[in-house]
Every structure is written in structure tokens, then in C-alpha cells.
Amino acid sequence: MKSKRRLPLLKIIIIAALAFSAGYVAFVVPDAVESFMPAVDTIKAESLGYKPTVSAKGAIVSRGEQWMAVVAVNEGDISAVEIGQSVQLSGAALPDGIYRGSVISIADTAYTQQTAAAPEIVVDVTVEIEEGDFSMLRSGYSVTAQLKTGEERFVKMLPYSVIRQDEKGEYVYILQNGSSVRRDIVTGIELADKTEVVSGIFEGDMIICDPEAVSDGGKVRLK
């Protein structure tokens, strides 16, 4: 009867060491690789109510017993202004609230107005004041008018910082299955720190906040 061969102690130690090393590498290497992936934050598009308006500055004038405001609308905005549009008026000398009225006339000619920044081409728009405390009004008071140029609607907004642009147009990076994926978008109205996304973004999309740190198809990890 043949006796079983036993492995020398040295071989057992070597095999055990190799097995341990393989297991260690299997667990450590993925962690090491992951540490080199860009760490990103994500946001979703924000839904906001938007009231299309045109802002203009001017002065109060009186015509008999009727109070008016004549405001200078920039030539870039005048095409959106129409007779009958509702207007809100406010001013430093009108602390008791908002005055309301409507557009009754638009001047036929434009002229150059000097501003603190630079000269601009403007068109005078006359607003008839219909609501407010008329006893507070004085000819020559300065006013700021908000002319309502459309109905309120809800829009999807993103901060400018997440949007990039190249020769193909504007785009963002979406987080999909652990990767950053380019998504072309079309933008619309612009606010102080956000812009409307007309198309390209869908419900549930997670937009990567730092587009400069990633690339199309690259692996990423959440912070």
C-alpha cells in the first residue's frame, strides 16, 4: 500500500502566501482604481415659475387728472411690448406699495439715452396708471416698470456652471451607470445665475456639477 506524499512545509507556506496575495489584490486593486476616478456631485434641473417681463426706467407725468408713466424700453426688448400689456410700477418715492397700469402707447421713433454703463438706443412707452395711491404721485418722480410680456409658465433651469459649449453647441454631462455621458441641450431664457433648458434634459437626470473634471464615457464616483 503506497503512502500519500506530503507537500514540504516550504511549498505549503509559498502556496498560502500566493493565495493570500491574490485575495488581497482582488480586494485592493478595485479600491485603488476607484480612487483615481473623478469624484463628482450631481444636481437635478430645477422647475421654476417664470413670468416674461421687460424692465424699464422712466418718470411719472400728469395729463390733466390722469397719471401716466413714460419709460424708456431698450431697443432689444421693444419688439415684445404691445398695447394693453399690464405693468407694475415702483419707485423710491412710492413706499406705500406697487402701482399698476397698462401700456397705452409706443413711440414711433427711438433715441439714444446715456446710462452709467454706455449709451443705449431706447423707445418711449407710455403707461396709464390705474391702481395705487394717487395722492402720493408727483410729476417727475422716477419709476421702474415691469411690463408683462407673456403668461407665467414653468421652466426647467440649470446653473451656468454645469453647462459647457463647443463647436457642436451646448451640453452637460449626465451620470449614467457610474460614467459621465455627454448630453446635448438647447437653452432658452437667461436669468442672473441660471438658464432655461428647452430640450435635452429629462425627469430624473442627474447632471454632473463639475463638467471640467470629467469626459464623455469616463468612469466617475459620487463624492
What does the model show?
The structure is a single chain. This protein is mainly β. Helices cover 12% and strands 48% of the residues. The protein contains 1 helix and 17 strands. It has a 6-stranded antiparallel beta barrel. Strand 14 and strand 15 (194-199) form a beta hairpin. The N and C termini lie far apart (65 Å). Mean pLDDT is 86; it is low at 25-29.
Q: Main attributes?
A:
223 residues, mainly beta, six-stranded antiparallel barrel, four-stranded antiparallel sheet, 17 strands, 12% helix
Sheet with the most strands: spatial strand order:
4-5-8-7-6-9
Helix vs. strand class: mainly beta
Write down how many β-strands occur, each being a DSSP E stretch of 2 or more residues. 17
Helix content: 10-25%
What is the compact description of this entry?
The chain is mainly beta.
Secondary structure layout plus pairing:
Elements: H1 9-35, E1 39-40, E2 42-43, E3 46-50, E4 53-63, E5 66-74, E6 86-90, E7 99-113, E8 120-131, E9 142-148, E10 153-159, E11 164-166, E12 169-176, E13 179-184, E14 186-190, E15 194-199, E16 207-208, E17 221-222
Parallel strand pairs: 1-17
Antiparallel strand pairs: 2-16, 3-10, 4-5, 4-9, 5-8, 6-7, 6-9, 7-8, 10-15, 11-12, 12-13, 14-15
